Every structure is written in C-alpha cells, then in structure tokens.
Amino acid sequence: MKKKTVMDYISIIFVVLAFVIIYAPIILIFMMSFTSTYSLSEVGEGFTFKWYQSLFTTNYESLNIATKYIANTDSLKAAILNTFFITILSTIISTFLGTMFSIGIHALNKKRRTTLMVLNNMPVVNPDIVTGFLLLLIFVLFQTLFGLERGWFTVLLAHIFFSIPYVVLSVLPRLNQIDPNTYEAARDLGCTRLGAVFKAIIPSITTGIVSGAMFAFTMSIDDFVITMFVSGTEFYNVSTWIDSAMRRGFIPKGVYAYNVIIFLIASAIVLSNNYLQSRKARKFKEAV
What we know:
Strand content: under 5%
Distance between the termini: 37 Å
Largest sheet: none
Mean pLDDT: 85
Order of helices and strands: HHHHHHHHHHHH
Shape: globular
C-alpha cells in the first residue's frame, strides 16, 4: 500500500477546511431555525417548529412570540411573496425571450453570431455592482422623462435583463447539437415558419431550455446587489429585506426557516436532476 506523503495530508486538510467553510453557515442556519430563543448566543436552547409555523399562519397567539417579531414576520411574508412573484415572472419571460434570441443567433452567420455572443456575455462577466449602477442610471433617466417610479416593475425588468444571457448560454449548445436540416424538413412537411420553430426546434432543445430556466430562477431568487439599486424605497425582496432588517437591528427567526426551506427545495431539485441524468445514462449504456 502506498504511504501518504505530507502533501497528501495537506490536501486532505484543505479539502476539510473548504467543506467546513461552505457548510458551517448552513448548519448554523439549520440550528437557529429550530432554536426557541432569539439570540445567536443561545443556539440549541430548546427545539421548536414555531418559526416555520410563523411563515404559514396569521394566528400568532399559540406561538408565544414577541410583538416585535410578529410585525417583522408580516413584512417578511410580503418580501417572500415579492421574491417569488418577481422570480417566477422573470424566469418565464427571460426563458421565452432567451430561447427566441438563441434561435435567432444560431441562424446568423459566424461573424454576426460571434458579435452577438460577445454582447450577450457582457452582463455575465460584469460585476453585479456595475450592472446595478448602470440600470439605476437608465431607470433614473426614465423616471425623469416618463415618470417611471422605481419599484416592482423596474426590479422585474432588471431581473429579466440579467437572466436572459444565462438562458442563451444554456440553449445555444443544444441548438448546435441538433440536425441543421430539422427546420427545413419541418417546412417541407407543411409547417409555417413559426410552426416549424415550435414543432421541430423547440422539442429538440427542451433540455437546454429547462437548464436555462433553472439558471434564471436561481439568479433571480437570491439577487441582492442589482435589486438594491433598482428597487427604490418601497419594494423589498427577501435579500433586500434582510439588509434593511439588519440595519434596524432585529431579524426574525423566520428568516432562518425560510432559508432552510429554500435550501431543501434546491437540494431536492439537484438530487432529482442528478438521479434522472444517471438513470438516463444507464438506459443509454444498456441500449448500446
């Protein structure tokens, strides 16, 4: 048996440290979400589900929680609804537009395609603070010219803007893999131009579209920097609400419960996707 060298032990230590840094905050959030007290210094003092209950009820009497907590929880619920409203709507719109843009870009010649891909990738490589500030300048200009107030609509536009490039980057590789004669074959069989796109092209790139939608959903649901710039003073999603609550000095424990729920949902989606992919790979190997 080969003996472990010093570098092997150092590598193991760095891997362990990396996992601790990544998962220690998650473990702490789990513990806080089930702790009955409010203080971070009293983690593990009493087990309770009341913080989870507070997210799904309006009757707080049986939960024995502070009045200040109730007021903050009500505003947290509004922020959660805002978050999912913006996330779901921006995901649907950006997935549709990103898919259409991908099909259009794919149909261009190599030079124009390269130019448009450079333009598409700029929001991806730009720091969020740069993108947020540029969008803020645009919305301030629109407010001056057209009276457009910053709020849910400007946040929705911003989320669509930064989500579309990720959809394009997910869909284009799938377009490159399909038979280039698919569209023409559909046209020869009697489809209109639009019908050929929706009956022949779209079904062939479904995997890329779903991946793009998942990217858009993920980017939107946890965005803070860009939302902070474009949301104004009256609209909050969860991330900007947490920032505001920290400035006020009181964060209800429902925040921890909410983050645990989101983490579990995301984990379930990832595990399900991995299972389906591995199952698909096994079936392919068996067929071969």
